[in-house]
Specification:
By secondary structure, the chain is an alpha/beta fold. A five-stranded parallel β-sheet has the order 2-1-3-4-5, with helices on both faces. A three-stranded mixed β-sheet has the order 6-7-8, with helices on both faces. Helix 1 links the parallel strand 1 and strand 2. Helix 7 runs antiparallel to helix 8. The longest helix is centred in the last third of the chain and has 25 residues. The relative contact order is 0.12.
Length: 263
Amino acid sequence: MTAPLRPGDPGTVAVVGLGRLGAVLADRLAERLTVLLHDADPKVTRQVAVDLSLPDMEPRELLAAADTVLLCVPPAETARVLRRLATLARQLGRRPLFVNMATSVPTHELPDVGLEVVGLKPVCQFAAVALGLKTVLVTSAPHRIGLLRTLAADLGEVVLGPEEVVGPANRAATKASLRACAELAAELTERGLPAELVKAAIRNVFVGTALDYPPPDSNTYTRSVLDELAAEAVQRQPSPTAPLDPLGWAAWAERPVSPGGPA
């Protein structure tokens, strides 16, 4: 069978790899799509299947039913798992569409397995996905943009661009967030605040402020803080740096996108 069933339709979706992000994605996608589960650890598969009330399957059974396979395994395992699943799929006469979700694994560097493999890289963190926050997902596959947008409709907006920008962006954001949280925790602890207040300041004020960024003009308090930060920045007089676009995002942004493509 050629995957997927119809143009723009992901059909039955298998989530392979049930770590934090894989499990959350399966939960969100199951609200609208038929979702199957598999993890290399049978205990993990059974537990997530029970938690989400979704079917867990062995690889051969899963590939006999799946039209789209999301690879949510650890980056170091992506190529190996892809080879194994593709071999089983060919033995079964199946041609599922494989979707590489690993932000640090360039899709074009994965092995040629004789089946179609596309990338879909989410700018996200699993807790944000679990909370239902919309995000942006990047793909370099214009001919599958319609299908991927249908697949990820509840997760956010799928855009066409170089997938390589997502991994560094996610890592930079994670590093900046952890650094800021650690600095804030240290500052508030030094002021004598108890641990529960420090935790609340990080989760409720810090995170809430980030969710509201950039703040609307009506948020006078946050605007006053931004003005304070701007004044401090002027005092530091940072040296100007030229904007860079090493991965060519600007060029991709000009590409026309067809809202579908062959199935």
